[in-house]
Amino acid sequence: MIYNLGSQNSILQEYIAEIRDSEIQKDPLRFRINMERIGGIFAYEISKHLEYSPREVITSLGVTEVPILIEQPVLATILRAGLPLHNGILNFFDKAQNAFVSAYRRHHKSGNFDIQIEYTSSPNLENKVLILSDPMLATGASMHLTYKQLLNSGKPKHTHIISIIACVQGVEYLKRHISENDYTLWVAAIDDELTAQSYIVPGLGDAGDLAYGCKL
After folding, report:
1. Which has the closest alpha carbon to 32: 11, 40, 180?
2. Which residues contact 85 (CB under 8 A, 6 or more apart)?
3. 61-81 pLDDT, tens per residue?
4. Half-sphere exposure (Cβ direction) of 120: Cα atoms closer than 13 Å
5. C-alpha closest to that of 163 among 89, 99, 69, 92
6. In the chain, is it the N or the C terminus that has fewer CB atoms within a 10 Å radius of its CB?
7. What sign results for the dihedral spanned by CA atoms 139, 141, 147, 150?
8. Residue 46 and residue 185: Cα distance in Å, rounded?
9. Nearest alpha-carbon partner for 199 in 105, 88, 108
């Protein structure tokens, strides 16, 4: 199942426009804030698909029943680009446990690259709902390898994968490598093109650099 939240008009479109805009991107604080806002929107939409149970709440004037989450999801992201998006999701699921994976592209002189994973911190994921976020889904390889790495901490009962901007190639890659029963993909836009360096076009550039500054 793929949910494209950008297919309908909403305030989300304004935030997407700003994180894509090369002039507004010059303000890293605004870029991070917009990423958090988008994360909050995704969290709200995903919350509609979680399990709830009625709980009695005593107010100052009486008693009422309110549906409350049966269990908080586990939130995971890929360092470092995913942190602002992750924080936006965490603002909504504020009692959630968290997982972090360090994954990056190791480039070779030939122009090719492979994905390196160097660090993982995760709670037990067995039979939990996992929300795995990364701003961009380009080739899909990083997301797939991160998902496989997290499976070492247990098999989630379902995984919600969030990418703000995806590429058709990345979406198809996940379809081929992860069982459709195991995950739901949430995006805000699906772009058609990848460059030779596997950057999404029109995309937005390097989300990590825009949020935290250029790296060596």
Report:
1. 40
2. 35, 36, 38, 39, 42, 77, 133, 134, 135, 162, 164
3. 999 999 999 999 999 999 989
4. 15
5. 89
6. C
7. negative
8. 10
9. 105
Residue 91 to residue 51: CA distance in whole angstroms: 19
Angle made by CA atoms 94, 178, 74, in degrees to the nearest 5 = 15
Q: Which domains does the chain have, with CATH numbers?
A: 2-49+76-212 (3.40.50.2020)
Q: What is the DSSP string of the chain?
A: -EEEGGGS-SHHHHHHHHHH-TTGGG-HHHHHHHHHHHHHHHHHHHHTTS-EEEEEEE-SS-EEEEEEESSPPEEEEEETTTHHHHHHHHHHSTT-EEEEEEEEEEE-TTS-EEEEEEEEE----TT-EEEEE-SEESSSHHHHHHHHHHGGG---SEEEEEEEEEEHHHHHHHHHHS-TTTEEEEEEEEE-EE-TT--EESS-S-HHHHHH----
pLDDT higher than threshold 80 for residue 106: no
Report the predicted TM-score, pTM, of the whole model to 2 decimal places. Answer: 0.93
Q: What residues have CB less than 8 Å from 110, skipping those under 6 apart?
A: none
d(CA 72, CA 131): 10
Q: With both helix axes pointing from N to C terminus, report the angle between 11-20 and 28-47 in degrees, rounded to the nearest 10.
A: 140
Neighbours of 194 (CB within 10 A): 17
The confidence score (pLDDT) of residue 116 equals: 84
